[in-house]
Amino acid sequence: MIDLYYWTTPNGHKISIFLEESGLSYQVRAVHIGKGEQFAADFLKIAPNNRIPAIVDHEPADGGEPLAVFESGAILEYLGDKSGQFLPRSLRARTEVLQWLHWQMGGLGPMAGQNHHFNRYAPEPVPYAIERYVKETARLYGVLNRQLEGRDYVAGDYSIADMAIYPWARGWEGQKQDLADFPNMAAWLERVAERPAVQRAYALVDQINPDPDALVSAQARKLLFGQGN
């Protein structure tokens, strides 16, 4: 059994998608980041960076005590190795998957995250920041679009790379992008969205957080971004 410490963010969705795809047994432990639950002492023992997602694996491969893992990329790699799914064993295929996983972790996630912040959460418009992150998001989507030329999935076969990228890429409209500029990415988004496990993962949103504006209140912004009242 795996405990998934989760909220309905792109990084949270990465892990729920993997768990639904793999069939590993898990239970969701909601961490409402708009209420500051990520700062609770018990959660910080699992995720010292006070961010979701995190997991606790109660049956690690070494047979020892329950094992906590934080950081979504590390969790995906851990679960891929644990399950033997969606992360190839062969050197070249594994390297292909991992480099696109890290592309998302180091590029698309941070840049699209700043795009989200300045377009939706910032207390006042900052035109330079908005333009900078909208353009960088477009550049990254151009990279992804080229990679998907002639491929169904990012690294060939469906993998943790797709699971990492998809939750961020599906937010293209809020990131002020035109999907017509990225036809290969558009087809890939549809392909991933049609997977039953992905649909089950996103169904968790209605169960866990039915209020899509839960993170835009003044109190939530203060907790998440250090903004004053």
Automatic annotation (TrEMBL):
Every GST N-terminal domain range: 1-87
Residue stretches making up the GST C-terminal domain: 90-212
Pfam families tied to this protein: GST_C, GST_N
Record CDD domains: GST_C_YfcG_like, GST_N_Ure2p_like
Coiled-coil intervals: none
Top-level taxon in the UniProt lineage: Bacteria
InterPro entries registered for this protein in UniProt: Glutathione-S-Trfase_C-like, Glutathione-S-Trfase_C_sf, Glutathione_S-Trfase, Glutathione_S-Trfase_N, GST_C, Thioredoxin-like_sf
Similarity section: Belongs to the GST superfamily.
PANTHER family: DISULFIDE-BOND OXIDOREDUCTASE YFCG, GLUTATHIONE S-TRANSFERASE-RELATED
Protein name as annotated: GST-like protein
Annotated source species: Pseudomonas segetis
